[in-house]
Fold JmjC domain-containing protein.
Amino acid sequence: MTTTTTKIANAIEALIEDYHDFNASYAHEYDSFDELHRAVNSNTPAVFKGVARDWPAMRKWDDEYLANSVGDIEIATTPLGNADALVRVGDKDLLVEPLNQQMSMRDFLQQLHSKKGDVVYLQSQNGNLSFPEFALLAKDVPLSIAQMENIMGTKPDAVNIWIGGSESVTSLHHDPYENIYVVIKGTKTFNLFPPVDEYCLGFEHYQRGKYVRDESGELIVEGLDGHVPWTPIDPCLSKEENIERVAQFSLSRCMTVTVNAGDALYLPSGWFHHVMQDGDPCIATNYWFDQAYDGERYSMRQFYNKMINVLRE
Ligand SMILES: O=C(O)CCC(=O)C(=O)O
């Protein structure tokens, strides 16, 4: 490192330390969305207890109702529950997308409960709750969160439904959305890192890949063109193991938040999240509101990202 890059690295490390000194390492809890503006203003995660308690979905969404209300759907299929995750192929890691398969809701639930063979996860992340195949389920949840609409001044960009089991884990990533994530059945556990910890996560460019079936029906990885930035950090490993992967990880601080059925998590834009689940099945809906681009936050994050890239060159 030159003197200048050492000075930049020192300044970034001081920034991370300051952030962790001034911010709680736990998510605040509230009883209603009336306090949502506090969390959104400070861009910090918060749990809203029992806010979905009276949603019809909470009492209606059992297997039989789901199977009778929904026809064919697109399901992410992987060998180990690792959709959009790094997979070692030969001597390198690829960022591998799941195989998307059409199946009926009934077959999907059966496969999910069997815990045998391929791991299936309804996680299409494309605003699926507004699609015709989910029209009946969409009547059982609000199609927006009024308090968030007031704060953001817009409707959600996407409303998604997620149905999975404990084998499925969502690897560490971040999104440009303000996220209201509501658990209907089961439990979700989020491992969260603030945007300032980007420096600690050691993003690198990985070749893209996808799961396909070979002639025997086995899921295998096929390489794709193009590379994407991704982090090798895996919160399921110990801190020491992650530090071996990225030395700067020692400066990071993980906030672990458990969200139970009937509760909602406000997951602020730009926060890195790794998600695990329990429940047979675990069901959630989430509301993605586009992040704000005015003010300083977005521009400062772009600048920070560029500074980190300078250190990597
Ligand atoms: O529930 C999950 O598995 C992932 C959720 C997620 O990544 C998101 O809401 O942005």
